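At this stage, I needed to go through a protein sequence along with its fold in token form, as given directly below:
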Amino acid sequence: MTREIDFRYRIVRNGADYGTLDPAPGASPTISMNDADSVKTCLSGTFLQPKKPVDWLTDEIRPELIINGTPHRLGLYLPVSVQENDDISKTLAITADDRCWVVRDCKTEDRVFLPARTNYVAAVISLLAATGIALISATDTTEVLAEDREDWEIGTSYLQIINELLDEISYAPLWFDQDGAAVIEPIATPTAINIDHYLNAEDPRCLILPGIQTQTDLLFKANVFLCVCSNADKSAPMRAVAENTNPQSPLSIARRGRRITKLIQVNNIPSQEALQTYANRQVTESLLSGEVFSVHTRLLPGFGVGDVTAIRYGELMTICKETAWTMDLSIDGQMTHTLERTVLTLE
């Protein structure tokens, strides 16, 4: 399968194309995603001085992967570090983060007050608006705040507040997609019905490179999760219990022969149903944290944060959550995927 690969780095000003950046000779910029970081994706590389004057405080960089003439956007990044190198070309070493950096950098100047019965997603959208973020892709919810909220001290990061609210309704932490839009969505549980990507070694379009590394860590994994929500505003505490009773799972109560309980204190939650969903999520996430794969492919566009990815490689057929990836933006560059598998059986 023949692929013609090229790259373009657009400078974006006020949402419109303003100019371009060119990598320094021999330089290969990289883009990396890590689901565990508060700022999910970043771009780094060495570039030539742009031909037009750039305001590195407000202008953004939009890298594109061009495959057989078709451009694929790889995100929108705001420089956090621009260092001029003292060489013949006066190159620039640039590190740039996605727009989560903007939301994290904005701090509250007054106490944030959210009244009871405020819709959770509406509250998050209003907080994003306060940071200047208007491009949003949101999945609606019916969950509303159970009580007035004024939990956060002055000087708290807006990103911290937003992610705390999202966690209470079992939504994923805030991230930004390939177009630079803020994504507000429920956490995706890896199943056969919500697969985002197929990596099939028998399909040349997937371009899986030889060799998969596997690491398994099952020690100290709980199989019972007791979640308790109690604070001064509640007349009585709420409790929810979730158990791993799947007989196929090596982490289950039956397979281990004992209950390994983890107590989780939850400060706020909209309802008893939401607390049970929260507890059930702990079981799912415990299954996702045992077996990790490292897979190498050629450059593939369209990967986001926490995507559900199916893998077929020899006798291995499994569904995973994409927790990290790195793209080496060069003609022969590779993409490294870190994926967590739902641990059911290890045979």
